[in-house]
């Protein structure tokens, strides 16, 4: 995994990878043992929501 975007104030990064099935796998660089897997449909819905200005 590689950081998708990092803050310059420290080593905390959200890392995003794509597995062979197209799922997005996310983890915090400070807690790499914990991952979240998101299927392609859910990822697309999330990205569309963010682009539309929805906040979480």
UniProtKB/TrEMBL annotation:
Residues 2-51 form the DUF397 domain. This is DUF397 domain-containing protein.
């Amino acid at each position: 995994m590689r950081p998708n975007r990092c803050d310059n104030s420290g080593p905390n990064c959200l890392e995003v990878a794509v597995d062979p099935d197209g799922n997005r796998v996310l983890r915090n660089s400070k807690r790499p043992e914990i991952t979240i897997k998101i299927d392609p449909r859910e990822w697309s819905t999330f990205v569309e929501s963010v682009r539309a200005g929805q906040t979480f």
